[in-house]
Design goal:
This protein has 170 residues and is mostly helical. It has one domain. The protein is built from two helices and no strands. The chain is rod-shaped and about 200 Å long.
């Protein structure tokens, strides 16, 4: 039994020590812990207030961004429509310029071809005349033998004599 009493006393001594220690700590730490808890409460309240303010500001920015985005969508559509209209105008202008250039090239080509035809016709005339002269010269050479030449000279002299006789002396 004395072991039980000793164990009980030992336990009771430990409980008393614990209560004294805990009581002393409570007495010493009560004011700092109370101040710390009060400060922490204030800090948490301040954090909540800042979080609410931040949330309100974020929502306002979000609304402003949504409004701006809606405005941008309209602006993008307007810019897209303007770009398409400008593209159509530019396409029409390019088509007109291309048609004018094609017409100018046709006229230039037509004039160039007409000039080449005129030159070719002139060259053909010169060639044909030279060729005709060459053919005539060759025929005359073949036909005009020395006997035929003498006969022509004699014939010409006879004609001149007859003409001279008709006109009489002067």
């Amino acid at each position: 039994m004395s072991g039980e009493v000793s164990a009980g006393m030992d336990f009771l001594g430990k409980v008393v020590n614990f209560l004294v220690l805990f009581g002393g700590l409570t007495f010493v730490m009560r004011k700092p812990v109370k101040a710390m808890l009060a400060k922490r409460t204030v800090d948490v309240g301040e954090s909540l207030r800042l979080a609410q303010t931040g949330r309100t500001e974020a929502e306002a920015r979000s609304e402003a961004s949504k409004a701006k985005l809606a405005g941008l969508e309209g602006e993008v559509l307007t810019l897209k429509a303007e770009a398409e209209a400008e593209g159509r105008r530019e396409s029409g202008r390019i088509s007109q310029a291309a048609a004018a250039e094609a017409e100018r090239l046709k006229n230039f080509t037509r004039r160039e071809l007409d000039e080449q035809v005129r030159q070719s016709v002139g060259e053909l005339k010169v060639y044909a005349a030279a060729r005709a002269a060459d053919i005539a010269r060759e025929r005359i050479r073949r036909r005009l033998t020395p006997e035929a030449q003498s006969a022509l000279i004699d014939k010409s002299i006879d004609r001149l004599s007859k003409l001279h006789e008709k006109s009489g002396p002067r």
